[in-house]
Write a structure and sequence with these properties.
The chain has helices at 8-42, 45-71, 85-117, 127-132, 140-148, 152-181, 188-215, 222-233, 267-285, and strands at residues 239-249, 252-261, 290-297. It is mainly alpha-helical. It has a 3-stranded mixed beta sheet, covered by helices on one side. The longest helix is centred in the N-terminal third of the chain and has 35 residues, at 8-42. It is elongated and about 90 Å long.
């Protein structure tokens, strides 16, 4: 079986993913140490929840590095369609981790609120925790690069970072309210953690839905399929595109279609036209697009 070499654009994309993910993992590691320290010293449930979130960010950074490396491998004898779905699997793992993190934060915050409502006491959060909440601006780099690289796994990881940044805003509000309004408002800290948890779980579900769609072989959107048919019909002598089957394979598309041509033309001419259609589709949707064209005579 002929193995397709990895093109320069794919190599550059992979290096870009490594670069942004390694930068994020270093920042995540430093932040989670700082947040754990700040949460313990500052007695803040919300900051400790934020530290756990940064820990999950660090873990998902490792997942992205490993799985994107595998997904970048070209097709081989055991993987005729390439390894693109490893990137989808990485995105799904990030979504699942995010879902569990959100539920864990919800559980801890809800437990603190329950104790407070039943007469229990909550520790006072300190100013150190409030300062730590604003460190999340460093994640903006990962968000920007994730979109620039057009990688679903990196974008998912960027959403993980973004939810961490927004959760820190909620943490700052909760901690700041508890500090400024006095002891009777210490419950704002776990309330902020609960609000953060719902946001995190919402993001997790949004990440998981397209992963499930891809793993269940859902077709590409109607506008993409319409564009495919438009391109096919733009070639003279080609008609009646039918049995169109489309799906995603990681960051790439797979397209299979039957077309009709004049039965009197030579096999070489039919092959030349089919190859031109294939090349045009790859120009439109990316060089990694898998295209299969079956030619039938006009009825």
């Amino acid at each position: 079986m002929e193995v397709r070499p990895v093109d320069k654009e794919e190599v550059a994309r992979e290096k870009g993913i490594y670069r942004v993910t390694i930068v994020g993992s270093v920042v995540n590691f430093l932040l989670l140490l700082f947040k754990f320290f700040a949460g313990i010293v500052g007695h803040s449930a919300a900051m400790l929840a934020d530290a756990v979130h940064s820990l999950s960010d660090f873990v998902t950074d490792i997942i992205v590095i490993v799985f994107v490396r595998i997904s970048s491998k070209p097709e081989d004898e055991g993987h005729d369609y390439g390894h693109g779905k490893y990137e989808t699997l990485a995105t799904a793992i990030i979504g699942i981790v995010l879902l569990f993190v959100g539920f864990g934060i919800f559980w801890n915050g809800a437990s603190s609120i329950y104790r407070f409502l039943h007469g229990g006491s909550l520790q006072e959060p300190g100013m150190l925790a409030l300062i730590a909440a604003f460190k999340e601006a460093l994640y903006r780099y990962t968000v920007f690069r994730g979109k620039k690289l057009n990688s679903r796994a990196v974008v998912a990881n960027a959403w993980h970072h973004r939810s961490d940044a927004l959760s820190s805003i909620g943490t700052a509000i909760g901690i700041g309210g508890a500090i400024l309004l006095g002891n009777h408002w210490r419950v704002l800290d776990p309330i902020a953690a609960v609000v953060v948890s719902f946001f995190i779980m919402k993001v997790a579900v949004k990440l998981l839905i397209p992963c499930v769609d891809e793993l269940l072989e859902k077709s590409l959107p109607a506008d993409v399929e319409n564009e495919i048919q438009r391109i096919i019909l733009s070639f003279p002598g080609v008609s009646s595109p039918h049995h169109l089957r489309t799906r995603r394979i990681g960051n790439h598309y797979a397209i299979e279609v039957h077309v009709r041509m004049d039965g009197k033309i030579t096999l070489e001419e039919a092959h030349r036209t089919a190859t031109a259609i294939e090349n045009t589709l790859k120009e439109q949707f990316g060089e990694g697009t898998h295209v299969g064209i079956h030619v039938e005579p006009v009825k």
